[in-house]
Amino acid sequence: MRTQKTMKALFSALMLVLLAVMVAACGGGDKGASQQASGQAEQGKEASSGGEKKVLKVGTDAAYPPFEKQGPDSKPVGFDMDIIKAIAEVNGWELQIEHAGWDPLFEDIDKGKRDIGISAITINDERKQKYDFSDPYFDAFQLIMVPESANVTKIEDIKDMRVAVQSGTTGADLAEKVLGKGNPKLKGFDDTPSAVEELYAKRVDAVVADNAVLNDFLKTSGKEGYKVVKDPNVVPEQYGIMVKKGNKELLDEINKGLKTIKENGKYDEIYKQYFGEEKK
Question: Where in this chain does the record put each Solute-binding protein family 3/N-terminal domain (predicted)?
Fold first, then answer.
C-alpha cells in the first residue's frame, strides 16, 4: 500500500507540474501575442500619422480675374489658385481654399482663421508691418482704364475725373494721391468688377487697377470702345503670398515650393495658360 500511495502521489505531483507549465506557456503566449498585436497597432498608427498630409486653410478674394474668380461650382479658380496648388503639391499639403473677400482675408490671417492668403496681394511696406510675404511671384503695374476717346496719357490726367477703384488696393492709393483724400469724385468699391461696371455705365470716367485684371476685362467683357493706359512713371509692384507675422516655418515652405515650380517649369506652364506667354 505504501508503494501504491507513493506512486499516486508522484503521479499527482507530476500532473500538477505539467498543468502549471501549460498554464504558464499559454499565458506567456497570450502576452507575447498581445504585445505583438499592440506593437503592430502602434506601428500602423505611426504609419497612418506619418502618411497624413498637412491641411492648410487658404483664403482669397475671388473677384479678381484672371488671378481668382468663382468657378461654376463656386470654388475659387484662376492663376493664383493654380500657383498655390502647385506649391502644395511640392510640399505634400492638402488645401482648403475659400472665397473670403478682400478685407476679411486680411482679418482672417490676423486672427489665425486662415493660414495663407493669396489674392494678387501687392507687397508694400505698410502690409509688411503686419504680415509676412513670400518671395514675389508676379510683377504688376497700375493701369488706367478709360473710353478710347479720353485724352489720358499719364496718371495726373485723371485728377479732375470721376474715378472708380477697389477700396484698400494699391490702385486706390495711387488714385487718392492724385485726386486727394476724401475727394467725392473718387469712388471705392468692394471689388474691381464693380468698379469697371461703373465705368461701363458711364457713372465714372476712369478706373485704376492692376494691369492683368484690366487687360482681362478688355479681352473677355465683350465691351468695345475702351482702352488701358500705362504711365511709365508709376512704380511697378510685385505680388506675394501672405502669412501671419512670424510664421517663418510656413513661409520657408512656401518659398521652397515657389522656387521649385519656377525651376521645374511648372510656373511658366501656368503663366502661359493665363497670359499667353512665358514670363519674361
Answer: 55-278
Tens of pLDDT, residue by residue over 61-116, are: 999 999 999 999 999 999 999 999 999 999 999 999 999 999 999 999 999 999 99
Distance, CA of 171 to CA of 207 (rounded, Å): 9
Asked if the domains at 54-139+238-275 and 142-235 fall in one CATH topology, the answer is: yes
Domains of the chain, residue spans:
54-139+238-275, 142-235
Give 149's contacts (C-beta < 8 A, 6+ positions apart).
225
User: pTM for the whole thing?
Assistant: 0.76
Please state which CATH number belongs to domain 54-139+238-275: 3.40.190.10
Cell readout for 39 is 506593437
Q: Would you say 142 and 170 are in contact if contact means Cβ atoms under 8 Å apart?
A: yes
All residues at 6 or more sequence positions from 114 whose CB lies less than 8 Å from its CB, including other chains: 57, 58, 59, 98, 100, 105, 108
